[in-house]
Design goal:
single chain, about 350 residues, alpha+beta, Rossmann fold, OB fold (Dihydrolipoamide Acetyltransferase, E2P), 2 domains, 5-stranded antiparallel beta sheet, elongated, binds adenosine-5'-triphosphate
């Protein structure tokens, strides 16, 4: 196991800045998720850590050791990809044993380790099958078993669950997380799926355009997103953003617009602010610290566990609220909604960065 330090890493492909100065410390034994939209540089960062890509600039260290110039095979990293990279002509047990055979590990130890990892991944009964005789989920388990059987210092997983159906993905999510708790190998996991990131990561690095925008625990990312990009990327349905004017009365400052007036703790020292409100922080009941606003129901999306209301605030601005399923509202009906004041976020309209009041 190892701590992974990425120091101001740049990776350019001609004019494309796939990584544009990335710094990150993944503590020994933790599970870190790289989250971001397609093309933001997640895979490139993984390939740099594994040694498959040469860095344009910067350094990568495993503990104190600079591995930037070290060949992939000498870094002791294991990778699991979206496609199940298992050898079709080898039985499951041979597939798993392969990295150990390459390292010339003794036969008795190979047997012991294959048994250990097969039990961990619940594939003992599959050891004598060929990959073609396995389901997608089973094949991915074999790929994971093969990756961890030689106890790598670092385990890199690049969208390992995206070829699986939704139900299996949820199950594998918790299995991989449990597996990590048992083996505690330093793990870096790539996904563009925010639910996967929020449920699996000890910490999440949110990436955009070749940079890390925020690195924090799932709770920090959700409760204190550093930018509008992070706020909009994490959370479902997406956070609502409303540009409002800053006003004041006596010593109290407000964000005003769309028929609401949100009291602010201090002067935000800007003419306008972007107010961010998550759909789950809008309710139909009045609370002691909420602000009421009138809206018109445009559309009610009835999901089985909740209802997602699309509400018009005026002719060209709408807002989304997540409310309990058993609520009865009609389209075109005017309703009063209440915004939870303690969960309101503020952002600067020009820099799009969080304003902490
Ligand atoms: P996805 O979720 O779609 O896999 P990603 O976040 O993993 O995306 P990368 O694959 O790291 O993104 O790509 C980052 C950027 O670098 C993209 O603009 C991509 O087109 C570019 N890129 C990646 N590899 C190469 C390459 N070998 N040559 C040229 N450009 C590349």
């Amino acid at each position: 196991m190892a701590r992974v330090t990425v120091e101001n890493v740049k990776k350019y492909f001609g004019a494309v800045k796939a990584l544009d100065g990335v710094s990150l410390v993944v503590e020994d034994g933790t599970f870190v998720v790289l989250l971001g939209p397609s093309g933001c540089g997640k895979t490139t960062l993984m390939r740099c850590i594994s040694g498959l890509e040469r860095l344009t600039d910067g350094r990568i260290l495993f503990d104190e050791r600079d591995v930037s110039q070290i060949a992939p095979k000498d870094r002791n990293v294991a990778m699991v990809f979206q496609s199940y990279a298992v050898w079709p002509h080898m039985k499951v047990k041979e597939n798993i044993a392969y990295p150990l055979r390459l390292k010339k590990v003794q036969r008795s130890e190979i047997e012991e380790r294959v048994k250990w990892v097969a039990e961990l991944l619940h594939i003992t009964e599959l050891l004598d099958r060929f990959p073609s005789q396995l389901s997608g989920g089973q094949r991915q388990r074999v790929a994971v078993a093969r990756a961890i059987v030689h106890r790598p210092s670092v385990l890199l997983m690049d969208e390992p669950l995206s070829n699986l159906d939704a139900l299996l993905r949820v199950r594998m999510r918790s299995e991989l997380k449990k597996l990590h708790e048992q083996v505690k190998v330093t793990t870096i996991y790539v996904t563009h799926d925010q639910t996967e990131a929020m449920t699996m990561g000890d910490k999440i690095a949110v990436m955009n355009a070749g940079r890390i925008i925020q690195f924090g625990t799932p709770e920090e990312i959700y409760k204190k997103p550093r930018t509008i990009f992070v706020a909009g990327f994490v959370g479902s349905p997406q956070m609502n953003f409303l540009k409002m004017k800053v006003t004041s009365k006596d010593t109290q400052f407000f964000a005003e617009g769309f028929g609401m007036s949100i009291p602010l703790k201090r002067n935000p020292e800007r003419e306008y602010v972007i107010v961010g409100i998550r759909p789950e922080h809008i309710s139909l009941e009045k609370k002691s610290r909420s602000v009421p606003v009138t809206s018109k129901v445009y559309f009610a999306e009835k999901l089985m566990s909740e209802t997602v209301l699309h509400l018009s605030l005026n002719e060209d601005k709408s807002i989304v609220a997540k409310v309990p399923y058993d609520l009865s509202v009609k389209e075109e009906e005017k309703i009063e909604i209440n915004i939870d004041l303690d969960a309101v976020h503020l952002f600067d309209p020009s820099t799009e960065e969080r304003i902490e009041l």
